[in-house]
Structure to design on (113 residues):
């Protein structure tokens, strides 16, 4: 029975850790997306970091990515910049991969400490 309990606790810990990593990856992806979008929109200086923070915060409006997509597309439309949802989602996928690599590298560095 102890072995089963230990395995169960191990699975629960892994699930919790995986959820935490996924949250970090999504948040990092959104920040990277905000930085990318700010550059495309021609923002400079402190406006770039502020915009990236706004994109991260937009993700808390509803589950999924629709809120982030909507925010960025609306901002592009307001500026008269062309951006399709398809292109935006491709960029989000690319940045998600980059964010995952960054988070995994940070996790690996923590384990070595």
């Amino acid at each position: 029975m102890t072995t089963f309990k230990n395995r169960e606790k191990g699975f629960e810990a892994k699930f919790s850790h995986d959820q935490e990593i996924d949250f970090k990856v999504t948040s990092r992806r959104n920040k990277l997306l905000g930085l990318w979008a700010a550059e495309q929109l021609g923002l400079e200086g402190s406006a770039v970091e502020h915009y990236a923070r706004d994109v991260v915060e937009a993700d808390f409006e509803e589950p999924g990515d629709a809120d982030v997509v909507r925010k960025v597309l609306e901002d592009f439309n307001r500026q008269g910049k062309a951006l399709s949802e398809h292109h935006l989602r491709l960029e989000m996928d690319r940045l998600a991969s980059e964010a995952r690599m960054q988070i995994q590298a940070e996790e690996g560095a923590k384990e070595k400490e």
